[in-house]
């Protein structure tokens, strides 16, 4: 009889839970569907119909900075053998010039929000909000995060400027799902997101991620995860990206050091736009960056991304970036390593490469090409606008251009009036790429 009673109780509980599941699922779907629609509306608002204006603004600032700093050191292919810089604070690009060499930077952290350039220049993060100090590196409760943890900080609805009380290694048990209007600012501490899941920026806006290390990222198993103070739901397994940007707008990633993630270091998909990736240092990875994940998702036409002042370093293989659709400005980056190719794409993305240094692999004669097109015959990809202007090619590297050869003449505001800085200066422009070792009370 006791066994029969227990079976009846189990049956009642099963029926009650089965009745509850459709309600829960509908609630989850409604929340994410609403966010998706709001995100698409923001994409249309953020999209710049005349992207060359943003390109020109960035290039103008580069030239102004270098003119004021004077001539930089001549270029060298032996960047990797240079000793770590130990001299006085030195800035070599306009983003860093805006804030870095001020000894009181820690008292004026939010100045950083006014320093962005490129398509992500509208990203202000948590500038209008209060400071939130992360004091606890743990990540044990996905549904009710502990106050003082990074997960508790990023799910808040209000704008927040998130800083860290001390250096820490944060092992995320599941993907870290960010809410809008947040800055993650690692300056003044050594902050590592490592040995667990990565950061997810999905259907949100106005995010700055600055000054942290992201490495050794694994897939998350999925499950119940809180994504805001008033909502949590079931999530499938995360891909293992370092940073995944999905249907989001006005994002700036600056001075991060990234390596060794399960999937990509940075993936940007689903009509995300208004994005700048700057001053980053990438190493030890195969598929570095993916911009647009599906040939069938034509909404990625609205994707606009600036890749500026980054160092693509040792033991990288491909996708720096790999693009579908969109308008991608690649300017004054240092490509010192790749094993297959540097920049690839399909679905006719517009790729404007200006003032970059491309150093081909020394011992692979089949990997000299910077560019790679996929899923299109030559007759088709020859019409795509992939232009190289002022790039430097070493060790036999070459950029297969396509599209209108007179494109630069038709866009004189980009190419003739103001150009990117000389590729001969790229090693110095990117000299301080990656997370900086900032000490409070000293220039960073």
From TrEMBL:
Q: Does the keyword Metal-binding apply?
A: yes
The Pectate lyase domain extends over 167-364
Which pathway does it take part in? Glycan metabolism; pectin degradation; 2-dehydro-3-deoxy-D-gluconate from pectin: step 2/5
Q: What is this protein called?
A: Pectate lyase
Family statement: Belongs to the polysaccharide lyase 1 family.
Kindly state what the record says about how the cofactor is bound: Binds 1 Ca(2+) ion. Required for its activity.
- State the InterPro entries in the record: AmbAllergen, Pec_lyase, Pec_lyase_N, Pectin_lyas_fold, Pectin_lyase_fold/virulence, PEL
What reaction(s) does this enzyme catalyze? Eliminative cleavage of (1->4)-alpha-D-galacturonan to give oligosaccharides with 4-deoxy-alpha-D-galact-4-enuronosyl groups at their non-reducing ends
